[in-house]
Design goal:
This protein is α+β, with helices and mostly antiparallel strands and about 110 residues long. It has two domains: about 35 residues; about 70 residues, Beta-lactamase Inhibitory Protein, Chain:B, domain 1 (2-Layer Sandwich). Helix content is about 45%, strand content about 30%. Strands 1, 2, 3, 4 and 5 form a five-stranded mixed beta sheet that branches. A hairpin with a 2-residue loop joins strand 2 and strand 3. The chain is rod-shaped and about 80 Å long.
Length: about 110
């Protein structure tokens, strides 16, 4: 009986040492993968995919924008860090006129973020 307790204790210790750290370290990696699932577009890809598209199509593809505002009496949606240009990640603005994208421009990348 004492031999069985020793074997069980040893097996439990080995399990804890080998598998628990892997389980604990796996959780943050899974979280970071889900945070970076969004596609990063090149400028040309972004413009060719979304120029002259309706709001509904943009929402289906990109989801809700990070911010909405009015510029020159037109609605502007901003998506943060969605376009890669000059090896940096940029914010992308989309201006709508009559419910369609009629102008797209990028903001300067946030300092320190790549």
């Amino acid at each position: 009986m004492k031999f069985q307790k020793t074997i069980f204790t040893f097996a439990s210790f080995v399990f804890l040492v080998l598998f628990v750290p892997q389980i604990l370290w796996a959780a943050p990696e899974e979280t970071s993968v889900t945070q970076t699932e969004g596609k990063i577009y090149t400028v040309i890809e972004f413009e060719s995919m979304f120029m002259n598209r309706r709001k509904e199509e943009i929402l289906k593809t990109l989801g809700e924008p990070d911010s909405k505002k009015q510029v020159q009496e037109k609605e502007v949606w901003k998506y943060n860090q969605i376009v890669k240009d000059m090896e940096q990640i940029w914010d992308q603005n989309i201006m709508f006129d009559f419910g369609r994208v009629n102008y797209i421009w990028s903001d300067q990348p946030t300092a320190g973020k790549k």
